[in-house]
Amino acid sequence: MILMITLNxxxxxxxIMTVTNDNTKQLVVRKDRKFGNEHIYPVCNKxxxxxxxxxxxxxxxxxxxxxxxxxxxxxxxxxxI
Length: 81
Hints:
Layout: H1 2-24, E1 26-34, E2 37-42, H2 45-54, H3 61-69, E3 73-76
Parallel strand pairs: 1-3
Antiparallel strand pairs: 1-2
């Protein structure tokens, strides 16, 4: 009986952790085109941290590839008028 309650509590914690991890694994970026080249600028703090680690102001394709390998999803900031 005690084992079942502990196992159920563990399963509830795991499901809660997976729900919260989905929201924290998102990066917000902004696409900009300058002189025919597309640049991806970090918007949120986590994206800015990845750019800082890479040593660039923008997120390069290789950096984006590695960010996705870490399980992050990248969301572009929509244009508002």
